[in-house]
Amino acid sequence: MNEPTIEDYFHEDRVFPPPASLQAGAVVSDESVYDVAAADPEAFWADAARTTLSWSTDFHTTLEWDLPFAKWFIGGELNVAYNCVDRHVEAGNGDRVAFHWEGEPGDTRTITYTDLLDDVSRFANALRHLGVGRGDRVAIYMPMIPELPVAMLACARIGAVHTVIFGGFSPDSIVDRVNDSEVSCVVTADGGFRRGAPAALKPAVDAALPSCPSVKSVLVVRRTGETVEMTAGRDHWWHELREQVDAECPPEPMGSEDLLFLLYTSGTTAKPKGIMHTTGGYLTQAALTHAWVFDLRPETDVYWCAADAGWITGHSYIVYGPLANGATQVMYEGTPDTPDKDRLWRIVERYGVTQLYTAPTAIRMFMKWGDEFPARCDLSSLRILGSVGEPINPEAWMWYRTHIGGDRCPIMDTWWQTETGAHMITPLPAITALKPGSATRPFPGITAEVVDDHGDPVTEGGGYLTLTGPWPSMLRGIWGDPERYRETYWSTYPGRYFAGDGAKVDADGYLWLLGRVDDVMNVSGHRVSTTEVESALVDHPAVAEAAVVGATDPVTGQAIVGYVILRAGVDGSAELVEEVRQHVATKIGPTARPKAVMVVPDLPKTRSGKIMRRLLRDVAEGRDLGDTTTLADATVVEEIRRRAAADADAPGGGAN
Ligand code: WT7
After folding, report:
1. Average pLDDT over residues 76-83
2. C-alpha of residue 607 to centroid of ligand 1, in Å
3. pLDDT tens, 100-142?
4. I need a labelling partner for 496 at 20 to 30 A (CA). Which of 49, 337, 442, 600 fits?
5. Is the pTM of this model over 0.85?
6. Given ligand 1 and candidates 363, 390, 413, 510, which is best to mutate, with the most ligand atoms within 8 Å of its CB?
7. Which whole-number Å values give the CA distances from 167 to 191, 192, 339, 523, in the listed order?
8. Cβ contacts of residue 92 below 8 Å, gap of 6+?
9. Domains and CATH numbers, the chain
10. CA torsion angle for 48, 51, 54, 60 (degrees, to 10)?
């Protein structure tokens, strides 16, 4: 007998049509874009490449597809930094603000496109001065300051390949990444401000570099002014080199398929994979999706993606997409609760932010903090909201819509991955009717299908999300390991890219993401998605955030164990816990009722905010913790374990 595909339990009936107010002047206001793209996807993307970007040499071939290896816009030449900076200045928009930057302590900088051109050109010359050239790898380990996008664009300007390492990573992570890609130059800063204090970065680079023989030079940006050690001959201050180098740096024409950057995915177990992205296809899809999904009107909008530039979200939707489109953006250095939990809303109000793009993990945190913080601020400038990184639970979606979006702004739930480079499944704001918790449908020119265990398409119900054709911003491989690329992404369902996510299709053809298939639970032969049970838990008014895992059970195979964070001011009594368990049974059915629910102060998350269910499974099954190096805060699991042990000791307490 075949194992069942993933069950479809959660039913969500609310529908929100696109707001009429967005239709006039919308970048995309007509459904026909989908049909046009579907009729000839290559022609659609070729047209997007030519109209969205400036090429120094036009391409002669749109696509060469030798599954699983794709080449897009062959023969074309362009420079990414030219597209993101110079051409806006040449078009007379040099005075337009590129970044309204705000430091955590409250200091601000306003950077126009003319300023950006000067900075990027000088930074590129500084890199050249340090011996960096075409094809060389540069690691960037920085706080969220303007020099981070500047350094990325400077690499692109001279044809060097950057690999950004998130500023929260340890020296060991730097060593792995720098050595894997044989980086010759590291760009860093003395530190940045986090939670009201300077947080040093340079010492982590100093600790890593003795194990990194390929690194010849380090370029250091001064941000905090704290004392740092400078190694003579290796380390250089950016503010000193800045004054010595030329202000002009002609952009290097690059082939469409030349490598633009590597970004390592911090897989929870295996060695990090260096995901390769190239030039023409990546920039085309990053720019087009940014303009369409956020309905960007560059003359008037103030767009804010609150991610860190160290993740793909920051690469595609802070640096490359928005700057290629000439957007005005907000960039913020610090944490959302410094000095108070209303910091983000103060920023929205101050700059008149029109689009806000953030993650479900942040939304659930705001929900936990309470409604009063956004209520303090005028958020009426917002037009469109975005969500990325995890499935967004319908109740978190509703909270976001009501308390941030004023019941007015549509929410773009964008599904994509480091590997896909840009949005793949997403609504479009002026034409898609939204259902809370659904990422809706593939972007024009993208083809996705949910399949069952045999790889046969599922027309309604749960299964595995696959992509059925090449797309311009797709990864071109894993650095140094083409076989691992084929094996990881293209071997499960022959001819299809399998992303590792479960998804279901509803009767209207809408797609609902169900989380990583590795996390799917098997309860008495039913395959239950973590996402649906978590959404049912978050649906209870006392619950702000939830994680569930399947723990081995002698009777049912696996039993569902839930961990919940309560909203501010709610008391976690035994009665409430019972009520919350029961709520799941009522909402989606008795099979999905957790065997136990535990109230916890926090959940273990990766540094990008994804819940690490593997660790919760270890706790639920009483195992020693496996590898915890990718965990943002290692004390969280210990606290949960302590509570679990206390619950087990107390007769009838908590779990039952
Ligand atoms: C994984 C990719 C994409 C930039 C940030 C994460 C999950 C991402 C959604 C969404 C449901 C989502 C998937 C995906 N994911 N967006 N809108 N709905 N799940 O990039 O670290 O490469 O993670 O994030 O599981 O496979 P990433």
Report:
1. 99
2. 14
3. 999 999 999 999 999 999 999 999 999 999 999 999 999 999 9
4. 49
5. yes
6. 390
7. 9, 9, 21, 40
8. none
9. 20-503 (3.40.50.12780), 520-649 (3.30.300.30)
10. 60
